[in-house]
Prior knowledge:
Number of strands: 8
Number of helices: 8
Oligomer: single chain
Distance between the termini: 22 Å
Radius of gyration: 18 Å
Helix content: 25-40%
Order of helices and strands: EHHEHHEHHHEHEEEE
Largest sheet: 8 strands, mixed
Strand content: 15-25%
Amino acid sequence: MPDKDAGTPRVYLARHGETEWSQNGRYTGVTELDLTENGVLQVLGTGKTLVGPGKLIDPVKLAHVFISPRKRAQDTFDLLFDSAGKEALVKEEKVTTTEELAEWNYGKYEGMFTNEIRARRKDQGLDQDRPWDIWRDGCEDGESASQVSDRLDELIQKIYKIQGPYMHGEKPADVVLVAHGHILRAIAKRWIQFPIGRTLPMMMEPGGIGILRQLRTPQHCGARLPVGNGLSGQHKDDYAWLTAPLRPRIWNMALKAGA
Length: 259
C-alpha cells in the first residue's frame, strides 16, 4: 500500500557532533566548545551517507535551514553540506542562525553533571521527594520548561508557514534544524504537541539525524527518528516511527524489523 503522506515536507533534526562535554555528560548550553576529532568524523560520516544530491537530505529540496548560534552547531552545518550545497543555500537566503534553536539555557547548572545538580538542589532543600528532572523543574537562573516550550512553538509556527502551501508535494519544502540534544528532543515533543514534561523515549546520538513530518490528516503529525547513529549505509534505514494525534491520548512507537 502506498504511503499517502510520502510527499509531505519533512523536518530534519541534525544534532551537532561530539564535544568533550557531550562525551563526558556535562550540561553544555552557552559554553562554546569545538567538536572533538571523533565528533568531526561523526558529522562527516552522516553527511557522506545522508546529505547530497539524490540522498535523504537533498539540498535542492530544502526550503530552509535553521541553525543554533553555538559554534558546535555552526561547525556541524559546515561539515554536513559540501561547498556547492552550502553556497547555493546561502545564495538563495535559505540559511538562518537563530537563538530559537540555542540549547536549553542551563543557568547555574552549566558545565555540571546530573548527580552534581541533584546534590546541589537537595542541599538547597529542593526535590526532597523526587529527583530533579530538567523537563519538569528547569534550571536555576536559566530557562524553565515553559520558556523552552514557548520559544520552540514560535519556531514551529515559522516552519508551518514555510511548509503549509506544499502539503501535497507541489514543491519541495523540507527544513533542516541544526542544534543540540535537549533542544531537538524538546522540539520533537512540541511538534507532536506533547507537553515538555511528558516522557518521550527518544535519544539522538551526536552527529545523528532525526525526521519529523506533517501528515495530511489534519489531526495528526509524525516523527521518524534514528535508532542507530546513521554513520554508514548499513544503519541509514534503521529508523523508529513515532506517531501521535495533535491532541495526544494514545501514541505508539514501532521499530522496523531487525532494528
